[in-house]
């Protein structure tokens, strides 16, 4: 049956990267060859970082960091260090492994078929089931999440991301016992160094017991980021922030359903298994070769190496 609001949806949603609807804010026609050359040379000079020569990937990182070369370098450093030191999120990234398969069975992650007028892409996630699983499921959830956005960064150029997290099917025990300050701190640190600008986060269908988690979350992020976090009891409220063409049909938008977007992402993650196991998405920093910061005597609590790991400002 055709939805009543289909007449208001004037963009046909397609999931191919080349078909994404973009605007003048899009950077697709800009090669940024000089900046990419500088990044390749810089990576070659960094003893602890992998020697990346994938120009399209580096270009997407540069665009994601607002065309700032030094910001991109800082981001790449943190990006690869996180992957080396936070094993629960970035250990063996096998799409057919038990941990990732469990996450795929329980959760959908999808990427909007269209971009906003500003060139932002919407990431939507929803749990399929609230079943209990052995171990720390949120670590598996986070591993799968970063595999999905790594895959998307490899294929698509965007100016930033907006996240919609549908909490309609949430495991109360997981949320209240596994979302610890340490888990949030590591998650936020990883997101800080990811080569995407975080525009907004929308939590919808939020259960009342989740308030304690959001209080912890907000206490760990700068006020600037707090202003980008929204909680909605009514899912349709996201339509006040994001245009319909970028919102799944089951949330009142014109894009494909969360299930369709999630299944597409899942299929692609499995299809790119070699890239996750042995290709660019498996690469990490060699922390034994990381230069020490001679200007600092501080010890990083997160990364565990001498010297103060420079923290990015999220903007």
What does this structure look like?
Residues 1-5, 11-25 and 294-315 have low confidence and may be disordered. The chain has 315 residues and is an alpha/beta fold. The protein has helices at residues 33-45, 55-64, 69-85, 87-90, 98-106, 137-155, 172-178, 181-193, 211-220, 223-226, 258-271, 273-277, and strands spanning 107-111, 120-127, 160-166, 198-204, 229-232. It has 12 helices and 5 strands. The radius of gyration is 19 Å and the shape is globular. A 5-stranded mixed sheet has the order 1-2-3-4-5.
Secondary-structure blueprint:
Layout: H1 33-45, H2 55-64, H3 69-85, H4 87-90, H5 98-106, E1 107-111, E2 120-127, H6 137-155, E3 160-166, H7 172-178, H8 181-193, E4 198-204, H9 211-220, H10 223-226, E5 229-232, H11 258-271, H12 273-277
Parallel strand pairs: 2-3, 3-4, 4-5
Antiparallel strand pairs: 1-2
Helix pairs in contact: 1-2, 3-8, 5-6
